[in-house]
UniProtKB/TrEMBL annotation:
<feature type="transmembrane region" description="Helical">
    <location>
        <begin position="71"/>
        <end position="90"/>
    </location>
</feature>
<dbReference type="GO" id="GO:0005886">
    <property type="term" value="C:plasma membrane"/>
</dbReference>
<dbReference type="GO" id="GO:0055085">
    <property type="term" value="P:transmembrane transport"/>
</dbReference>
<protein>
    <submittedName>
        <fullName>ABC transporter permease subunit</fullName>
    </submittedName>
</protein>
<dbReference type="Pfam" id="PF00528">
    <property type="entry name" value="BPD_transp_1"/>
</dbReference>
<keyword id="KW-1133">Transmembrane helix</keyword>
<comment type="similarity">
    <text>Belongs to the binding-protein-dependent transport system permease family.</text>
</comment>
<keyword id="KW-0813">Transport</keyword>
<keyword id="KW-0812">Transmembrane</keyword>
<keyword id="KW-0472">Membrane</keyword>
<feature type="transmembrane region" description="Helical">
    <location>
        <begin position="48"/>
        <end position="65"/>
    </location>
</feature>
<dbReference type="InterPro" id="IPR035906">
    <property type="entry name" value="MetI-like_sf"/>
</dbReference>
<dbReference type="InterPro" id="IPR000515">
    <property type="entry name" value="MetI-like"/>
</dbReference>
<feature type="domain" description="ABC transmembrane type-1">
    <location>
        <begin position="14"/>
        <end position="146"/>
    </location>
</feature>
<feature type="transmembrane region" description="Helical">
    <location>
        <begin position="6"/>
        <end position="36"/>
    </location>
</feature>
Length: 146
């Protein structure tokens, strides 16, 4: 392999790594918003989701790395390694973002929630105008550590 091929392959490998990280980051944000907005608005969901995610957070990635690789290879042999990599990156990123969303939505001012209820604002509008803007600063702040 000459130098030009080496540079080309290196650029492709770096691009693939950034693509994996970006996909995992998007999944992390969507998962965090969906799960913890539901948990912050429903006490039953909160009582189930918070302990489960806290337990999952404490399990190191290396603890389930071999099982994850095996499962993804068994399910989809051609893309198994790529999907396993995205899943493992997702599990390392999601906890920081998820608990930031939880903190942001759980501690919204009661006046805002009461106003939304009094105006009979629907779920999509509450998401768009209340929950996501409240979560966005902490989510963006947690991108880099994640």
């Amino acid at each position: 392999m000459d130098f030009a091929e080496f540079i080309f392959v290196s650029i492709l490998a770096i691009g693939a790594s950034y693509l994996r990280m970006s996909i995992a980051l998007v999944f992390s944000v969507v998962f965090s918003l969906a799960v913890y907005i539901a948990a912050a608005t429903n006490r039953t969901v909160e009582k189930i989701v918070t302990p489960v995610l806290d337990i999952f957070q404490s399990i190191p990635i290396l603890g389930f790395f071999p099982v994850t690789i095996q499962l993804f290879y068994a399910a989809i042999p051609i893309l198994g390694a790529e999907l396993a990599a995205v899943f493992l990156i997702f599990t390392s990123q999601v906890w920081n973002i998820t608990f930031a969303v939880y903190e942001s939505t759980r501690f919204l001012q009661a006046e805002l929630l009461d106003t939304a209820k009094a105006l009979q604002i629907g779920l999509l509008d509450r998401l768009r105008y209340l929950y996501i803007p409240a979560c966005l600063p902490k989510v963006v702040r947690n991108f880099q550590p994640s």
